[in-house]
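Final report, closing paragraph on structural work. Over the funding period we assembled a curated collection of sequence-structure pairs, and we close with a single example.
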Amino acid sequence: MGVLQGVLLCLPLYGRRTRTRVAAVCLAIASASFLATLHLGTIRALAPAPAHSAVWLEEVRAGEGAEGQGWFWSEREATCTPTTNIAFLKSHKCASSAIQNILFRYAYNEGLLLALPDYGNYYGGGTSLFQAPMYRASPWAKLGVNIFAIHTKWNHKEIVKIMPNDTVYISIVREPTQLFESLYTYTKMEEHYKMNAEQFVLRTPVSSPRHHGYLGYNQMAWDFGMPASTINNITAVAAMVERASREFDFVMVAERMEESLVLLAHFLCWHLKDVIVLKLNARENKYKTSLSEAAVTVLREKLAPDYLIYNYFLDRFDALVEDFGRRRMAREVQRLRSLTQELVQECGFNKKPSQNMTGINKPWSNMVEGYTTNATSGNCTLYSISEHAFINKLRDRQRQQVVKRFGLREPSAGALPPGAVALGGPGGMTPEEAVKVLKKSLVHANTAPQGKSGVPPQKSGVPPQKSGVPPQKSGVPAQKSGVPPQKSGVPPKKSGKSPQKSGIPPPKTRSTIPKIRSTTKKIRSTTKKIRSTTT
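Its predicted structure, as stored:
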C-alpha cells in the first residue's frame, strides 16, 4: 500500500481533536510500512528441520501452487528449513491462546524446550516488563530454550538475552474496538467497576488506572511494552511501532485467522497440519455485548494508540498475502479447513460450555466454550487441553529432564533441597506452602550448621545468651558482688523463677528430655565461658 493510502486508512479512525496531530504520525507509519515491504526478505537464519516436514518441503520445491507468488515467498521457500526457535508476544484477547496451543503442541511433539515460569502462566504478572532473570531463576534454564510463548509485558532487549541467535519473533493483533469489548467482559471488569462496557467507555477517562494494574484501554500497546506514563502519547507509541516493525518478523491478524495460519505455516516452514487449531477461549454468544455508535466513536478516539499498532501490522499483513498470491491463498485455506475437519472427526471433538466441564480440558473462564474428545489418543487431547493444564504438563516434563540430567533429588515434604520449590514442590502444594517447606528445610537438623554441643543453634530451644541469667541482670554486677562467677548465673531453683521463665519448658513426655539435656549442656557451657572471662 502506498504512503497516501496509508494516511487515508489511519485518519478516519480518530476524532477531530486528534486528527491533525495524528496525520503526521500516520504519514510516518505508512512510510515505514512501504519501506518494510522492500525489506521483507531479510530474515534470520533458521534452525535445523524436524524430519516430519519433509513432505511439505517436497511440495514447495515441486512448485505446487506457485502461480501468482511474489519474490518474498519464492526466495524464502526455496531454501527454508522448519523453524524451531520462536518467541511469541502473547497479546491479550487477540486469539493468542490458539497460537500458543500450536507452539506448545509443536514443542511437545518435537521435544523442544520452553520458557516457563515456576508457577502460573505469566512472567511479571502482567504488570512488570519481562526481565531475563525471571527465566534464569528457573531450574530448567540449564536446559536452554527454543520457544517463548507465555503472557508477559514484552521487553525485547531482555527476551533476546535468553533466546538463541536465530530466533524468529512473531505476534498477533486484533481490531482494537472488538478487543476492548472482549477484554472488558472476559476479565469481569463490569463487576469491578459496577458499569457495563458502554457506561465505562463514556464515563471513564483513558488515563484511568488499569484493572489489576495491567488491563484496560489500549491493551495491545501495553502488551507491546508501553509504560503507563506514555501509553497515550501518540508520538511515543509511533516510535514503539517503528521499533516493533524491526523486531518482529511476522505478525498475524486475528480477524483473518485462516490466512494467518496459512502464512504462519509457510513462514515457519512447517506442514499445514502443524497449525491446525480449535477455536479456543471463544466466548459464548450470550456473554457478548454491543456498543452504540456514540460509544464506538468515543472508544475509537481513546484507542488511538492501539489503532496505530493494528493499522501498521494489518498493512504489512496485506502485503504478505498479496505476495503469497490470492488464488494460492484460497487453495491453502481450503486445505486447512479440510485437514481441520478430518481431525475433528478423528478425535470426536464436541464443543461444550466451560461451566459444564471438569478436568484438564476445562477452560479458565466459565464464559467460554471448551472441547471434549471421544478419542483415547493423547495427541487429540493436546488440541483441547486448557492453557493452564498444558503449561503444567510441559513444566512437569522439563522438571523431570532437569532431575535426570543434573541429578537433583525429587522434592519431598520433609526436607526440600535448594531449588526444589522451583522444581514444583510436593504434589498439591501451593507456592506459599512450598516456600514455607523450603525455608524449613534450610534449618533442618540434617542440613543446618552444627554448634559445639552437637545441636543446631536454631533448634536448641533457647539461645545461649538467654539460657541462664546474665551477670548484669542478676541484681549485682559479678565483679562487685563477691559471689563466685559460677553463681552469677543463678540456677532456676535459687532464682525464684519458675522453669518456664528460664526459657526451658518443663518436661511433658520422654521425647522432650533430650532437648532439656542439650539445653542444660548449653547452660553449663555458657557458665564456663563467663567464669573464664571474669577470671
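Residues 449 and 489 are 27 Å apart (CA to CA). Confidence is low (pLDDT under 50) at residues 1-9, 32-66, 410-427, 435-513. We thank the funder for supporting this effort.
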